[in-house]
């Protein structure tokens, strides 16, 4: 029986880690060679993209894709982790909450839309001096993270609820890779002078992949998406002949083939529909920058 290979979309439930999902998939598919294209916090649910077998090499091209999230932001309470798993640090009084108008919320959201400079949450996986920021924070050490440039292309409020001295906002966010939705909640609350944190987070999209196409449980017979199909959907396709496929696999350039490139780093696909690798322009030629293990016919 051939070893499994391909891309698997999983809808992660809450209260387990992304690594738990990978471990379950490894047991179900009976292979250790499974990786992911970006984690979700334990409290979060939604889309994880897993690479299986040789297809793990494609994850580097998926991890940087834009993403969509649905979330709930609670205004009026700040926590040390910027989400509901943290310890409450401040709570606004009733007068401050009453002073937050819908127009103020709209203005605050608008200020956090587009290209922005964002300081990630101090309880994050970013490394500081070789250690994860969340490990430093939990050890009581001071964590100061540098701001990074991200793009929030959509920050839409779909619902507003006022109750018990807080304001809950349901939002949808389209953003570039590396954006922290927890930080958006924190920064919106800070801008409104009431504090804020995230109480719900669900990832619904990564690039062309939708959570509606994901499975909730991985079984030994769960079908995987072919690596050629996935690579073409993410990077665009570059059809090659059998002879060109052989040359690319042997590290040779395709002389004068650069004019055929429709994208910067497309997926070279052979006449049998197999992924040869990822290619790039070298002058007027085309050369492989990543070759895939040849898939049996």
TrEMBL record:
Which sites are catalytic?
A: 41
UniProt enzyme class: isomerase
Function per UniProt: Responsible for synthesis of pseudouridine from uracil-55 in the psi GC loop of transfer RNAs.
**Species of origin:** Microbacterium saccharophilum
Which gene holds the coding sequence for this protein?
truB
Q: Which GO terms describe its biological process?
A: mRNA pseudouridine synthesis; tRNA pseudouridine synthesis
Pfam families assigned to the protein according to its UniProt record, in alphabetical order? TruB_C, TruB_C_2, TruB_N
The EC number of this protein is 5.4.99.25
Question: What chemistry does it catalyse, as a reaction equation?
Answer: uridine(55) in tRNA = pseudouridine(55) in tRNA
Q: Where is the Pseudouridine synthase II N-terminal domain?
A: 26-181
Which PANTHER family did the record assign? PSEUDOURIDYLATE SYNTHASE TRUB1 (PTHR13767:SF2), TRNA-PSEUDOURIDINE SYNTHASE (PTHR13767)
Classification via CDD domains: PseudoU_synth_EcTruB
Write the protein's name: tRNA pseudouridine synthase B
């Amino acid at each position: 029986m051939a070893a499994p290979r391909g891309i698997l979309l999983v809808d992660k439930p809450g209260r387990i880690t992304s690594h738990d999902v990978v471990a379950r998939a490894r047991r179900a598919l009976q292979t250790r060679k499974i990786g992911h294209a970006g984690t979700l916090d334990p409290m979060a649910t939604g889309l994880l993209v897993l690479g299986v077998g040789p297809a793990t090499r494609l994850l580097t091209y998926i991890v940087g894709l834009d993403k969509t999230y649905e979330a709930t932001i609670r205004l009026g309470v700040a926590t040390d982790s910027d989400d509901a798993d943290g310890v409450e640090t401040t709570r606004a009084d009733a007068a401050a909450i009453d002073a937050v108008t819908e127009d103020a919320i709209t203005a605050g959201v608008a200020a956090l839309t587009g290209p922005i400079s964002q300081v990630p949450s101090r309880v994050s996986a970013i490394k500081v001096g070789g250690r994860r920021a969340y490990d430093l924070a939990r050890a009581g050490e001071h964590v100061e993270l540098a701001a990074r440039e991200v793009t929030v292309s959509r920050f839409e409020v779909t619902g507003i609820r006022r109750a018990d001295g807080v304001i809950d906002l349901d939002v949808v966010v389209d953003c570039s890779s590396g954006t922290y939705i927890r930080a958006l909640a924190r920064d919106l609350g800070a801008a409104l002078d009431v504090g804020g944190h995230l109480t719900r987070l669900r990832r619904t999209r990564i690039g062309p992949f939708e959570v509606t196409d994901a499975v909730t449980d991985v079984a030994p017979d769960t079908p995987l998406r072919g690596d050629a199909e996935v690579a073409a959907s993410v990077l665009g396709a570059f059809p090659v002949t059998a002879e060109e496929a052989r040359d690319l696999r042997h590290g040779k350039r395709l002389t004068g083939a650069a004019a055929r490139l429709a994208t910067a780093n497309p997926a070279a696909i052979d006449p049998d529909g197999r992924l040869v690798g990822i290619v790039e322009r070298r002058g007027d030629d085309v050369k492989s920058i990543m070759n895939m293990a040849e898939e049996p016919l």
